[in-house]
Specification:
This is EXOC6 protein. Keywords: Exocytosis, Transport. InterPro entries: EXOC6/Sec15 (IPR007225), EXOC6/Sec15_C (IPR046361), EXOC6/Sec15_C_dom1 (IPR042045), EXOC6_Sec15_N (IPR048359), EXOC6PINT-1/Sec15/Tip20_C_dom2 (IPR042044). This protein is an all-alpha fold and about 725 residues long. Among the domains are: about 15-100; about 250-375, 5 helical Cullin repeat like (Up-down Bundle), CATH 1.20.1310; about 395-415 and about 450-565, Orthogonal Bundle (Tetracycline Repressor, domain 2), CATH 1.10.357; about 585-725, Methane Monooxygenase Hydroxylase, Chain G, domain 1, CATH 1.20.58.670. It is built from 24 helices and two strands.
């Protein structure tokens, strides 16, 4: 411590003391060595003695070692072989353990490849999922596992592409075969409806239960999943009844939906499917330009639409969320608007009532089919009421031609019946009743002509044709009865009335024909009540019902009869004018011929024979015609005397003219048409008679004296007329 404390001469003192200490130790060592020296010498001596023995031992050990080494070489070789085998065994055990880990991976991958080759893509995706989550993590350190891991996403994309390709093929297939699908569905719906109607007619008690079973059968058939493609292989003449779903292999849709759902792209698939189906819907709803020309065009159009929605309904019920009810309703409403617009446009081109009726039947089957699949079709039945009006118009045009043909072919003569059988044939077609005629013996003649029973039968045929359209419209009997009566009224008041009016105005229709037309319309008017009974029997609606409409045939036939009567009056006057035009008086003759003019006698004979034909006319008609003819004849004769071109008349001509007027008066007094009271018909010639008497007697003083008095003998003689004739 003092050395470190740096005391003066501390180091030197320390070194001195240290040397002293060393010397002390040396002396102690020397003493110790001196004490043990003898023992050391003895040990060396012993050691020298042992040296010779040690060398002998060394030689022996060396020899023993050599001999031991020679003997152990084989053991060493065996031991090394054992060691090598044990290393191999350990390696084999390790390899087996590793292979046991790898084999399931390889087996699953081989299974994956096999599933891909047989197109079991959904199972392949499940296998991939097991590989990724369970097997590959155990052996991820191996290179082949890394290759597998890298290949799995590629396989997924390949599966997506293949399934999408299958889906596109499926969409193309159903687009091409949608008409076949729809045709099958419509045929089955029609058969089901026919069967149900037959059951209803056969047994109303069991009708409800049978319909319930039928609906269950339809639903089971509608939701049945089939995986058989029969488009190319199905025999067209196969007797087996197939449902609409039996014609379609829906597996591509299911497979693609499952694959995209597993891959997490379900929404992408749904959007793609709906987009493609909307495009197909627009194509299906686009009609061909010539669709309205044939019923096949409409049938194909409806079949395609039904096929489209049958597929969508099936997809709706067998998949979860691929399509929804909202989606199908929206698609249907869009389609329905387009369908109605198309039908309105194309049906307006149809002029054939048979084609319109076929179109109506197709629309009904189309609506019933889709209604069976849950789609609302009320707008289609509303459209049918519009088409019904068009159908009635086409019927009216067709029946207008039929009526014209009947009128053209009629001979306008009473129908002769030679025996009871012929009479029965006529009254079976027309409800003719005449007790007086029934009492007469055969052969006899019916007052009506051939056109009457034909017209009556055609009106009934029109009612039947109109009824055909009213069937299957889901309307009550009262509504159908009302529709039939309205359409029949249109036929009577517009079509038949127009045909009659045109017939009456035709130049070749003479007085005889006009008389027969009046008789015919009279009997047709009486038959209207039988037409009403006929409609009531069809619809089972009593005529006593408050809302039952009446037929307007009475007014139709009355108007036609009035027109015919007016035409008779006109043609009679025209005929009289023709006779008057051939009159050839010698106005300067000195004296008369002593007999009436030939033209006038011919005219009177014509009138007499004509009025004989009027015996079947109502009394007032014949009387009016006769009075009109006499008045017109009187007026024509008066105008002949007062003609401005006639400048001079001799008394001989006046006498001849008087003879002609006398014949006219004799004709009037002979009562050519019964029913006139007293000398009513002769009054038609009173103006001429008084004027001629004035000139024949030359009684001017009396005329002038009594002029203006009610008792005047020449009261009907106009002064200006008398003066004009006096000047001549």
């Amino acid at each position: 411590r003092s050395v470190y404390d740096d005391q003066p001469n501390a180091h030197q003192k320390f070194m001195e003391k240290l040397d002293a200490c060393i010397r002390n130790h040396d002396r102690e060592i020397e003493k110790m060595c001196n004490f043990h020296h003898q023992g050391f010498v003895d040990a060396i001596t012993e050691l020298l003695k042992v040296r010779a023995d040690a060398e002998k031992l060394k030689v022996q050990v060396t020899d023993t070692n050599r001999r031991l080494q020679d003997a152990g070489k084989e053991v060493i070789a065996q031991t090394e072989e054992i060691i090598r085998c044990r290393v191999q065994q350990r390696n084999i055990t390790t390899v087996v353990e590793k292979l046991q880990l790898c084999l399931p991976v390889l087996e699953m991958y081989s299974k994956l490849k096999e599933q891909m080759s047989v197109k079991r893509y959904y199972s392949a995706l499940k296998t991939m999922e097991q590989l990724e989550n369970l097997y590959l993590p155990r052996v991820s350190q191996y290179r082949f596992c890394q290759i597998m891991i890298e290949n799995l996403p590629k396989l997924r994309e390949e599966i997506k592409e293949i399934s999408m390709s299958d889906l596109k093929d499926f969409l193309e297939s159903i687009r091409k075969h949608s008409d076949r699908i729809g045709e099958t569905a419509m045929k089955q719906a029609q058969q089901q409806k026919t069967f149900s109607t037959a059951l209803q007619k056969q047994n109303n008690v069991n009708y409800g239960r049978n319909m319930h079973l039928g609906r269950n059968r339809i639903l089971e058939s509608k939701h049945e999943i089939t995986l058989k493609r029969t488009f190319e292989d199905e025999d067209e003449h196969e007797e087996e009844v197939l449902t609409a779903q039996d014609l379609v292999d829906f597996s591509p849709v299911y497979r693609c939906l499952h694959i995209y759902s597993v891959l997490g792209d379900g929404e992408i698939f749904e959007n793609y499917y709906r987009k493609q189906r909307r495009k197909q819907a627009r194509l299906v709803l686009q009609p061909q330009s010539s669709m309205h020309e044939t019923v096949e065009g409409y049938r194909r159009y409806f079949s395609q639409i039904v096929g489209f929605f049958v597929v969508e309904d099936h997809i709706l019920h067998v998949t979860q969320g691929l399509v929804t009810r909202t989606y199908t309703d929206e698609l249907w409403n869009m389609a329905l608007s387009k369908i109605i617009a198309v039908l309105r446009t194309h049906s307006s081109y149809c002029n054939d009532p048979d084609l319109v009726l076929e179109l109506k039947n197709l629309i009904v089957v189309f609506a019933d089919t889709l209604q069976g699949y849950g789609f609302p079709v009320n707008r289609l039945f509303d459209l049918l009421f519009e088409i019904r009006d068009q159908y009635n118009e086409t019927l009216l045009k067709k029946w207008s031609g039929l009526f014209r043909d009947i009128f053209e072919a009629d001979n306008y003569s009473p129908i002769p019946v030679a025996n009871e059988e012929e009479y029965r044939i006529v009254i079976s077609k027309f409800p003719f009743q005449d007790p007086e005629l029934d009492k007469q013996s055969f052969p006899k003649k019916l007052p009506i002509s051939q056109s009457v029973p034909q017209i009556y039968m055609q009106v009934k045929e029109f009612i039947y044709a109109s009824l055909k359209f009213s069937e299957s419209l889901h309307r009550s009997s009262t509504e159908i009865d009302d529709m039939l009566r309205k359409s029949t009224n249109l036929l009577l008041t517009r079509t038949l009335s127009s045909c009659l009016q045109n017939l009456i105005k035709k130049p070749h229709i003479g007085l005889t024909e006009l008389v027969q037309i009046i008789i015919n319309t009279t009997h047709l008017e009486q038959a209207c009540k039988y037409l009403e009974d006929f409609i009531s029997n069809i619809t089972n609606i009593s005529q006593l019902t408050v809302h039952t409409a009446r037929l307007y045939g009475l007014s139709t036939f009355k108007d036609a009869r009035h027109a015919a009567e007016g035409e008779i009056y006109t043609k009679l006057n025209q005929k009289i004018d023709e006779f008057i035009q051939i009159a050839d008086y010698d106005w300067t003759m000195s004296e008369s011929d002593g007999r009436a003019s030939g033209y006038l006698m011919d005219l009177i004979n014509f009138l007499r024979s004509t009025f004989q034909v009027f015996t079947h006319l109502p009394g007032k008609v014949a009387q009016t015609a006769c009075m009109s003819a006499c008045q017109h004849l009187s007026m024509s004769l008066m105008q002949m005397l007062l003609d401005s071109e006639l400048k001079q008349i001799s008394m001989g001509a006046i006498q001849q003219f008087n003879l002609d007027v006398i014949q006219c008066e004799l004709f009037a007094s002979s009562e050519p048409v019964p029913g006139f009271q007293g000398d009513t018909l002769q009054l038609a010639f009173i103006d001429l008679r008084q004027l001629l008497d004035l000139f024949m007697v030359w009684d001017w003083s009396t005329y002038l004296a009594d002029y203006g008095q009610a008792t005047s003998k020449y009261l009907r003689v106009n002064p200006s007329t008398a003066l004009t004739l006096l000047e001549k």
